[in-house]
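#struct-help
A.M.: can someone run this one for me? Single chain, 380 residues.
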Amino acid sequence: MTELNFTNSQLASGGATAPLSRVEVFDGVIANISTELGSAADDGSDGVTVLPGFVDIHNHGAFGVDVNSAKTDDLLYLAGKLAEHGVAGWMPTLVPDAEENYKKAIAAIDRLIEIQEGRPVAQALGVHYEGVFAAEKMCGALRTEFFKKYKPGIVDTLPRLKRGIHMTTLAPEIEGGIYLIREFREADFVVSIGHTRADRQTLDLAFDAGARHATHFFNAMTGIHHRDLGVAGWCLTKPEMTFDIIADGIHVDEQMLTLAVNARGTDGVSLISDSISATGQGDGSFQLWEQTITVENGRTRNASGGIAGSVITMADAVKRVLKLGFSSQAVAQMSSANPARLLGFEKVFGSVAPRRRADLAGLNADGDIVFSMIGGERIK
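D.P.: on it. Structure tokens below:
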């Protein structure tokens, strides 16, 4: 039995906050949570806010590791670094690439899933194929030469994991896009709308076909205009639609982020990093996806001057959204509970409660990570 003691602390989970004095962990699972007043903490856990470990559904890499080209050992190293930053679960995210590279990447993720259990690392929950079927005019930093066109059965040609969740981001307006959504849903993929300029009628058809989520809200999609609802506006008119968003202060203006989250409600928003391998490497030029990506003052740029992913961690996103005035329980929803629910892992991740995995992120008053626990093992 492992015991964590807290003083002057609170727990933010399940849409509420409560005083927190002790968390008891047995065999990697939370056995008991106490709100009784106790003596001063002997493990430095004083005055913290405890959130469930974060779940990042859109991560291309970080700390020098690129998911598209990484070997299993590289991914394991990355998973350990993510855990230090409070991430309990993540979706390795692939940009469009050659078929042979997809196969290698899937094999590496497969092996990671086989060996990660019981290790104090962020747990890979599956794979996210971003932009394989995207609109060329909304490609962002994705390489259009690797975009695929729809034909019946093409979903079956994508390399699949032996176990884990499969997610994809696509544009419903491409030729055969609605049929594609149906095929992905029949194959148990989580389907997200992104890299798209679809009109309202097409979006309605995509919704009817099973699309219920939107990728990096506002980015690589048409925005809101008073004479044109746009993809972003359409999402906000559909109560069943959820979306994820990059809270780095660059991809989306902070006031616009606040407006969108308040319009949708925090129960329908997930924070993502959309991080690339340059994350944690400082400013400079980096070779990534057969192009040069520059990072300056936290902003990424490709050769055409467009944004090419982010260099933030989930911990950075959480800190920024807290500073925007969102409550710790709202942030717990957006950083953990909502993405876990989207992937169908809500009974494992996303809350701090008895019989759940002991994945915790402790934040100080400034919103910085002061400790993280993954599967019952404190690693920071």
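A.M.: thanks! The radius of gyration is 20 Å.
D.P.: also worth noting: Helices lie at 72-84, 99-115, 177-186, 200-209, 230-237, 254-264, 314-323, 328-343.
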